[in-house]
Amino acid sequence: MRARKRIIITSIVCIALAALAYFAWLFPFYEFETNDYTTSLEKLRSVDYLNTLVPLLIIIALSAVGIALCVWLRKLMAKTDKRYSRFADVRTSRTTGNAPKQKPAVFMIVRWIVMIVFSFVMIWGGLIFGLRMSSISIPILSCPWNTEQMTESSCYYLSHLNELFELPIKSILIFMGSTIGFTILLGRAICGFLCPMGLVQDIMDKIRQKTKIEGIAMNEKMYGALTPVKWCMVLIFVGLCFAGGNFCNFCPAVAVSPILAGISTSLYVSGFLMILVLMGGFFKRRLFCTVCPLGYLMGLLHKISLFRIKKDCQACTECGACYEACPMGIKMIYTERGKADVTDANCIMCGECVRCCPENNALSVTFAGAKIYTSSREKIMSGYKRGGNHYVRK
Ligand code: SF4
Ligand code: SF4
Ligand code: SF4
Question: Which ligand number lies closest to the CA of residue 336?
């Protein structure tokens, strides 16, 4: 009970810190103006809003068709090629969704609540508070807050550095300082807790689990095949930053958050990419995150981030459950035999490795040195019951 209390308190402190960091970043130099809409309902009830949603509905429908086609193709292959069928059985048994059911950890509940609340605020906050920002807006994936001036959101400036440097020096310093400070404070926990694109992908994974459709478990070779895609994305992002192009045309988030907030956007390739993100996220949790350029850039500061993954190598029995559960395919958490700090640049602090680790205290998520989530044999065993002489899944 004491441990539970400690987790709740630490989680609340984390949320408060995240919120503080977030708003400390926002308020010193942002100018608010009143929206044309006094309440969110006024806009959300309008026919205009429904019209704006049409492209998103088409994207969702096309993704559903794509997923159905993939499932059908896989069934066809399994029927016609027995080797594929056996291969598919082995591979799909390793997906995160197949971990034994267990009592939900407070860390996980808090993570979902924070993700949903932040996504809600990022998408509809501007409408609900009847505000828009006339200066640089909320960080990453937040164009909806700038209801009329999308080009001035801060993720716009992150991808258009040439324009950022045209701002007054004070704004540049605050922008750069707060961006780096925020990344140090939270690191890629931003991906695990705050990013709406992460939430969208986690929801797709949950839908797959509920529909009992097998996912795809990726091995190192498959992750390796994605590496060139990641580098292309990073090159496009960084290249356009300096060359003056518009990364927003490639950003899949443009096909979701502004549209949900009732802003018509030109989708260019972002709509197509969003279909791939939804389909990919359905079969493989957080697939887009493995190639996301923003995630990669945030990962560059992972060595000084306050969130860490710690491992007690003495307690580890080398079962590999953590590696199989990790949506980012981080092998080090399983293979490391000496170091206590196993935080990787790709780690999004989702806590899946800790959830699936069967050894007490072998893996932990820590914040500023304090353990906020620790692996527990008791939790794992809560997913099993006695079946004769052995244990079976509940
Ligand atoms: S990797 Fe990119 S898409 Fe994924 S959660 Fe992080 S910022 Fe969002
Ligand atoms: S190492 Fe653990 S916390 Fe990090 S991404 Fe993998 S499963 Fe999530
Ligand atoms: S799940 Fe835990 S016990 Fe198994 S390899 Fe990973 S750290 Fe070690």
Answer: 3
Q: Among 291, 280, 141, 296, which residue's Cα sits nearest to residue 202? A: 280
Using most ligand atoms within 8 A of CB, pick from 317, 337, 354, 356 the residue to mutate for ligand 3: 317
HSE of 69, CA atoms in CB hemisphere, 13 A: 7
**Rounded mean pLDDT, 256-277:** 80
CATH 3.30.70.20 location in the chain: 306-393
CATH 3.90.1150.10 for domain 306-393 = no
Find the residues whose C-beta lies inside 6 A of ligand 2.
309, 325-328, 330, 333, 347-353
On whether the CB atoms of residues 144 and 44 are closer than 8 A, the answer is no
The token duo for 394 is 């509940």
User: Which residue pairs, CB below 8 angstroms and at least 24 apart, start in 217-220?
Assistant: 217/91, 217/92, 217/93, 217/94, 217/95, 217/284, 217/324, 218/284, 218/329, 220/329, 220/331
Element (H, E) at 271: helix 270-283
**Cα 156 from Cα 141, distance rounded (Å):** 9
Which one-letter DSSP state was computed for residue 250?
Answer: G
Find residue 390's DSSP bridge partners: 387
**Mean pLDDT across the stretch 296-325?**
89
CA of 285 relative to ligand 1 center, distance in Å = 12
CB-count burial class (<10 Å; 0-12, 13-18, 19+) for 1: exposed
pLDDT tens, residue by residue, 121-154: 777 776 666 555 444 444 444 565 554 444 445 5
191 DSSP assignment: I
Q: What is the pLDDT of residues 141-187, one digit of tens each?
A: 456 555 444 444 556 677 777 777 777 777 777 677 777 777 787 88
Are the CB atoms for 185 and 21 separated by under 8 Å? yes
